[in-house]
Amino acid sequence: MKEKYKHLLVDEPGKKFFMLANEAIVRGALEAGLDFASTYPGTPSSEIGNTLFWIGKDAGVYFEFSVNEKVAMEVSGAAAASGLRSMVFMKHVGLNVASDAFMTLAYSGVRGGMVIVSADDPSMHSSQNEQDNRYYALLANVPMFEPSSPQEAKDMTREAFDLSEKYEIPVLLRTTTRVNHVSGPVEYGPLRPRGKKGHFDRDPSRFVVVPANARKRHLILLEKMEKIREEAEKSHLNRVETCEGEDCPENGDGGGSDIGFITSGAAYNYIKDLVDGGYVGGDILKLGFTHPFPEKPVLDFIRSHKKIVVVEELEPYLEKETMALAQREKVDVEIHGKTTGAFPYSFEYDPDVLKRGLEKALGIPCEDRGLRPKKVPMPLRPPVLCPGCPHRATYFALKRVLGKRDVVYSTDIGCYTLGIQPPHETADYLLCMGSSIGAAAGFSKATDQLPIAILGDSTFFHAGIPGMVNAVYNKADLIYLILDNRTTAMTGHQPNPGMGVDGRGEPAPMISIEDIAKATGVTSVRVVDPYNIRETMRVFREALDEDGVRVVVAKRECALLAAKKLVKENRRYYIDQDECKRCYVCVDQLACPAIYRETPEPGSPVYIETALCVGCGVCAQVCPFNAIHSEKEKRDEKGGGASGGENPVERGGDGS
Amino acid sequence: MIKKKIVLTGIGGQGIILASTILGHALTREGYDVRISEVHGMAQRGGEVRSTIAIGYHGAIAGRGEADVILGFEPSETYKVVHLASKDSWIITNTHRIVPTTVSLGKSEYPPTEEILAAIREVNSNLIALDANRMAREAGNEITANVVMLGALSAIEVLPITREAILEETKNRVPPKAVEVNLRSFEAGYGYIKNELGKR
Questions:
Q1: Apex CA A431: angle with CA A39 and CA A516, to 5°?
Q2: Most B CBs within 10 Å: which of A148, A183, A420, as the mutation test of the B interface?
Q3: pTM, two decimal places
């Protein structure tokens, strides 16, 4: 087990450790007696899986990286039906994938406690949308907890298991980036025994949801949720924090304020800081158990205040529920929030968003001590492929071969989406995991353009297979480019079915992408090492000359994993300034971040930043003048003066 | 109660997350209620990385003017978060430039470092600039520039913990054979700032 995770198994209640909330969720699950866990990696939930990968075996927990979120949900659902305490976790859009299983799981329910973690990403730091998954709790009709801090992430995970098992229903633990990716001290509770084996006791009337059974199960679900509403209404997770002292100018005689804030999740932290810091006075109703909506405490709160400000990120869930409650119970109270225009519907909150909102809602002048320096335009720094990334080499070769041809780059979710940046611009269309190949078949039928579907190895296993079967079956004409970098790179290098390692770090069958493609009926399947530019271009030329579905697997380990080995060989590259003709092919067409020039002026020199170079050698192949050499080459040929071999890439090429 | 917000900013691969983790552990060990939030975008390397250390707060994001210290690992990235500082804040920046591909491709320009520093200095007189990469190189390994920055942060004495507490945690979190070079880097950053402050 990795040293950095050892503390998670320390059984000393009361002891505090500093950790990421995602680690705290794991600790909470261990304190609840976790037996079983599954996931498909997705940020901001990824570190939950990474943590279990490292400690699962020592903790006695079965843990797997499932092929996708739907399967992860089914795997953990089965474990929970067998009486085990199970946890499944994913990013918000992962729950879309798993939603088919999730909806009906609410009907049939569980026997062992089951917690479903949905990690939402307001502001879309690393996501394609910022949907508010609290609505999934309403849609499926399951209980929901919303933690605000690492400590609460741990405590609520533990409590969610107990609630789940008591009512035999899965519980949604809804987090956001500013919870998952916040670290802080977490005080431990006692660990419970883990890792038991379950037994599935047959009960088809419950677990086989044919219509006759499903009808009964829906009524049972509704009954359960009414009982759980009572739990929510008396839960300590929903609490009033009364504003006290001189910092609270609106204090009435009754010890509370006229102003009340209703809040949950990360948004609580910001309003709490403003109240504590004396920026605004008001009582806070902090909601942690937010579905079923805890009507009684909210009703008491709105009755005892004149103005309510609802502070929540993304959708106005609490706000609309509060407004509906006020209307139904005829409570005369002002309610401010998003629907009144005080707060935005988009992006995560921060202290400035709150200050502006409070100005609109309560007329408190917005305080701003922020510096306003003279405007100096800064260089753009969009996220780009890493130095030495094999995808860059693939894109270079692909663009060279395609030239000005009218193609549609139907890309997918992964590092390779960063091909959207110049000079590659290999991203024209993207929806979700697996959409590359599905949409490519659509473009093939809808247009006369050549679709290039681009996705990675992990995404192929996740959602790229049905789309491939569809493309073959419906006789689409496209190139299916699978960028196999032997890992799930963007979320932090988790294993996938192509790697020969499983979620416990043990050897596993290595599933071949090429064999799956052939079995599907693809007759044109090629595998190539993208670090060999000439060979990769040849493969693309051949594929281009064929019809139907042509699969190209560009296989080369992620540069971040390979970097250590390469650097150890001291294979870093440099540009011989005497040989360099300033043609800028390496800069303009390859665009490795390790290759740079300070100004775009003609004739300005090009350099390789040795601190960034990982020694992949692709630039040396791309240089038409053999001006790029490795340090190793220099050592080997000391005094020789000979440059590299014949250059594999013809000068100029037909690239755009 | 002590309340501080410190914003660390720079680029993926510069060791910002490690630097803030070191501080988080050191602060926790000394009994402070510390929260750190980190955001790194889609890119594993080369993209913007920001980390906010909040002591005594619930929210670990700094609003405009709320940061007591900006610790910038790259000059253009430092400039981008200057609005989070007030005129009373400390701004410490590494002057080592990392030129993004957009500049090489002629899609954007990178103004001279002195112009950036001058713009910041106009609104904040506490700016201190140092070449942490050079110092780290001289200490034995450029990769320890993040620890030079930790030494610099320690020297302004805004954190409620001693330099020894930070050093102790640094030793715990770097490979054993790299301890010596990290200690030298820390001292280089610390010494530079103390010297600069002595001149003022």
A1: 60
A2: A183
A3: 0.95
